[in-house]
Amino acid sequence: MSREIPLSAPWLGEREEEAVLEALRSGRLSLGPMVERFELALAERIGATRVAAVSSGTAGLHLAVRLAGLGPGDEVVTTPYSFVASANCVLYEGATPVFVDVEPRTLNLDPTAVAEAVTERTKAILAVDIFGYPAELDELDSIARRHRLALIEDACEALGAVYRGRPVGSLGHPAVFAFYPNKQLTTGEGGAVTLESDDAWELLKSLSNQGRVDSGEWLTHGHLGFNYRLDELSAALGLAQLERLDETLELRAAVASRYADLLGTIDGVELPAPDDDEHVRSWFVYVVRLAEEVDRDAVMARLADEGGPGKPYLPCIHLQPYWRDRFGTSEGMYPAAEAASRQTLALPFYTQLGADDQERVGEALRRALR
Ligand SMILES: Cc1ncc(COP(=O)(O)O)c(C=O)c1O
């Protein structure tokens, strides 16, 4: 068997080493200047009013839900075709996620279905930019305004994406980013939330720091808080990664475009939705869709044999064991999301993936589908 190609890998170099060492040698490992510098640099890069760094994307989502004041009895309309954290964060606050189906081409929330799902109990829409492709944010924003709902954007996979000429995270509603090592920018573990006002920023920072209030008293807790702080080493890593974000995004787009050339002519393989005037994807993963009649397991076995494994991606949230057990959800509820889940396959994808490895993956896929 030939060398295995990883599914994802961070792009790290000397700048990252220097920055982390600088933080380490400063002796200040938490609550220091790196987090603030990272927040300011990220806000400037995204064009957001304020950015609050947190310990993960999930932590950011939880706090965004909390800031929106959601709780028991409140419904939040969201997508079943996502990573589980985008719906779990609603459960953390005792509110109820209401799934609606996705649009089969983009795999993002279908705004018409969202509008139809709004009831008197609906308090928020939680949109996900799945695989880095911006959701229909203006349409969702107008539904939210019409019904006085909060709009929260899970942009965990979409740092660098652009919607109608504006960077995701700069549109006014809170957007949450994640920095796990498979992301376009990594801090190891980490996340960030964009916020429009200083008050919202201060509250979110306080909630992420055990509810401490700015009284100078370390052991004074004004809110029920959490420890969702990003540490200094992670923030330093993030600063170094941010310096090369533009280059990272360009390289990832080039890797995606090489895949499109290699795979576009294979019968039974549908490529990810292309960019258009309104949506510029930030390449997080490369997910193809196999024709319904193709045996995905057989394709994956073939890819694994040839050293370029693929992964079924993503399973639907409502079909996860925990969700089935707790809510009695089952197959047939969201046909577009479920069909996508059955047919989608993530291929090895990362910033420095070489053309030769991509050719191996392409050849293996072509042979598997013959
Ligand atoms: C859509 C989406 N939401 C939320 C998260 C959670 O982010 P984290 O792993 O940083 O908690 C992820 C991470 O993969 C994600 O892809």
Q: What's the helix and strand layout?
A:
Elements: H1 14-26, H2 33-46, E1 50-54, H3 57-67, E2 75-78, H4 85-92, E3 96-99, H5 111-117, E4 122-128, H6 137-146, E5 150-154, E6 162-163, E7 166-167, E8 175-178, E9 191-195, H7 198-208, H8 232-243, H9 245-263, E10 269-270, E11 279-280, E12 286-290, H10 296-305, E13 311-312, H11 321-327, H12 335-343, E14 344-347, H13 355-368
Parallel strand pairs: 2-3, 2-4, 4-5, 5-8
Antiparallel strand pairs: 1-9, 6-7, 6-11, 8-9, 10-12, 12-14, 13-14
Helix pairs in contact: 1-8, 2-8, 3-4, 3-7, 9-13, 10-13
Pyridoxal-5'-phosphate binds next to helix 3 and helix 4.
How would you characterize this protein structure?
The chain is α/β, with parallel strands linked by helices and 370 residues long. Helix content is 39%, strand content 14%. The protein has 13 helices and 14 strands. The protein has helices at 14-26, 33-46, 57-67, 85-92, 111-117, 137-146, 198-208, 232-243, 245-263, 296-305, 321-327, 335-343, 355-368; strands spanning 50-54, 75-78, 96-99, 122-128, 150-154, 162-163, 166-167, 175-178, 191-195, 269-270, 279-280, 286-290, 311-312, 344-347. The strands form three sheets. A seven-stranded mixed β-sheet has the order 1-9-8-5-4-2-3, with helices on both faces. Strands 10-12-14-13 form a four-stranded antiparallel β-sheet. A three-stranded antiparallel β-sheet has the order 7-6-11, with no helix packed on it. Bound molecules: pyridoxal-5'-phosphate. Residues 56-58, 82-83, 85-86, 128, 154, 156-157, 178, 180, 191 line the site of pyridoxal-5'-phosphate. Pyridoxal-5'-phosphate binds at residues 56-58, 82-83, 85-86, 128, 154, 156-157, 178, 180, 191.
